[in-house]
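Supplementary notes for students who missed Thursday's class. We covered one full example, reproduced here. Read the sequence, then the structure, then the short commentary at the end.
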Amino acid sequence: MTINIINKSQHDLPNYETIASAGMDLRANLTEKVTLEPMGRAIVKTGLFLELPIGYEAQVRPRSGLAAKSGITVLNAPGTIDADYRGEVGVILINLSNEVFTIENGERIAQLIIAKHERAEWNQVKVLTETDRGDGGFGSTGVK
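Structure (token representation):
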């Protein structure tokens, strides 16, 4: 699959680091450092503009290393970029640690995954089919 992209950053295009990678790292495109206080959040721009085909989305997800080492994650994970969006890709980051964190220009801040999706049509009914789980909700499928 080929996706049209405009890169207004000074960084290389996102790429897959290994043959089995699902995601591509997104880099911060900053003219000034961004400081996140504990529990602080910011939209960090990437300088990238996408033209996704209809039926696809781009998912913005946290980087596990950044989350584990520094407590920095994507607030609306996964963030969705729709096929009809043409604005700059931004990442909503939050600092869940107790330490101030500074984001530098070019820092890998999130990962981008391209995913196919379906559009659903609702079929309104009066009764749903029965299952073993039934209406068992949060935590209901775990070992007891």
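Commentary. The chain is about 5% helix and 40% strand. The beta strands are 4-7, 24-27, 34-36, 41-51, 56-61, 72-74, 79-81, 88-95, 101-103, 108-116. If anything here is unclear, bring it to office hours.
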